[in-house]
Amino acid sequence: MPYWYYDKKDLLNTPSFRDGILNEAENRYRKEGARFIIDTGSKMDLGYNTVATGVVYFHRFYMFHSFRTFPRYITACCCLFLAGKVEETPKKCKDIIKVAKSLLTEQKFGIFGEDPKEEVMTLERILLQTIKFDLQVEHPYGYLLKYAKCLKGDKAKLQKMVQMAWTFVNDSLCTTLCLQWEPEVIAVALMFLAGKLSKFDVVDWNGRIPKHNAWWDMFVEDITMELLEDICHQVLDLYSPQTQQTGSDSPPNQPPAKQPKNEKKPSVTPPTSASPIAVVSKPVLTPIKNGADIKIEPPKVDMRFSYPAYPPLYPPMYNAPPPAIPAPRLPIPPGPPIIPYSEPPPANRFPPVNVPPPNYYAGMPARPLPPRGPIPPGPPPPRPYYPPP
User: Any keyword Transcription (predicted)?
Assistant: First the structure.
C-alpha cells in the first residue's frame, strides 16, 4: 500500500508550487476546499467519518496534481461523493451538486461547466487512480475516545477536555496534518493541547507502568514534546487573525481592475466566512449530571462550526423548463427506381449429362439364397355357425 505521510520539505514542493502557485495561496485553497467539504457534508447530514474521509482524499489528491489543472470545488464534490460510498453513507451525485450550487456563488459554480455531473463522474476515475484505490482511511476520532477512557481525574474536566479535543480534530482537517502524522499522534497532540487549555492535568491513568513518564507513552512511544508543540501550533494558527488575500477565487489569478485615482476605495467589511476557520473562543461543552459516571461519546459538534447559515435546501425547488415538442418527422423520400434486368436469362449453361450411376456391386459374386423351410400351416378354418332353433 502507498505511504501517505510526507516531510515538510515535500509539502513545500508540491505540483501546485511547481506550477507557479505560492505556498500561501495553496494553503488557502486547501482550507477553502476542506471547508467546502465540511459545509456540504453537514448540510447533507453526513457523519463526521464521511466528511473527514473526503477531506483526506482532497489533501492526498493535490499531492499529485495542481490546483491550476483541477479546480478545488469540483475535486471537493468528487471526494465527498467517493467518501460517501466508502463509508457506506452514499449520496447521489446530483444532490451533492445541488447543495454545492447553493453554497457557491454563480461565478464559482461556473467552473462546473454545462454538465456538472459529468465533470464529477469523470474526475472520480482520476481520483481513484491518484490515490491508488487506497480507500480505507483512519481518523483521530476513534483514538481520541479510546485514549480518554484510560485517563483518570475529575470527570467534569475530563469531559470538557474531550469536547475541546474533538473540536480541534475537526479544525485540523483544514491543515495538512493528515499528510504529516498518523491519526494516533494527532489524537495525542490535540488531547495534550485541550488539556492545557482546559487546565486538566492528567496525574494517573489505567495501565500505567514505571517506565511511562507521561500518559501518552502508553499509546505512542518515543513522541517528543517538540513534536507535540509543532502539531499544536499548526492547529492554533487557524485561529489567528488573517488578512484577506487579494486575487481571484481560482487560479490562475486574474489581474485586478485599475481604480481611478480620485475615487475613494469603499470600506468593505469582510464576511465571517472569509477566514478559513471561524474563530472559536471556547468549544461547546455538554454539562454532566452530578454524581453520574462519565460516559465518553462522540460529542454533537456542528461540523460547520460558526459559519453563516445558508438558505434551506428542502423541499427542493425544481425549475426545469418544460420539455420541448419534437419537430414532426418528414416523410422519407422515395429512392431511385428499380431497373429491371434487361438481358434475357442465360440458357442451359450446364447441359445434362446422361451418365449411368456407378455399379458398386459389379465385381462381387452373387450369393445363393438360403434354402427355404416348409411353409407353416395357416390358421384353422372357422367353426360352422348353427343358428338357434
Answer: yes
How does the average pLDDT of the chain come out, rounded? 78
| CA atoms in the 13 A half-sphere facing the CB of 200 | 24
Separation between Cα atoms, residue 296 and residue 143, nearest integer Å: 12
150: domain range?
138-240+297-308
Phi, psi (degrees; rounded to nearest 5) at 6: -125, 160
Q: Which of 260, 289, 308 is the last residue of a domain?
A: 308
Note the pLDDT tens digit of each residue in 225-263. 999 999 999 999 998 876 445 445 556 444 444 444 444
**Pair 114, 26 in one domain:** yes
pTM: 0.65
Tell me what percent of the residues of the chain surpass a pLDDT of 70: 68
Identify whether residues 107 and 150 lie together within a single domain.
no
Query: Interior CA angle at 79 toward 76 and 46, to 5°?
Result: 95
Regions of the chain where pLDDT drops below 70:
242-330, 332-333, 335, 337-353, 355, 358, 360-364, 366, 389
Which of 308, 327, 342 is a domain's end point? 308
Q: Residue 375 CB: number of other CB atoms within 10 A?
A: 6
Q: Whole-angstrom Cα distance, residue 159 to residue 294?
A: 7
Question: Is 336 within a domain?
Answer: no
Per-residue CA distances from 261 to 140, 254, 264, 265, 266 (Å): 53, 21, 8, 10, 13
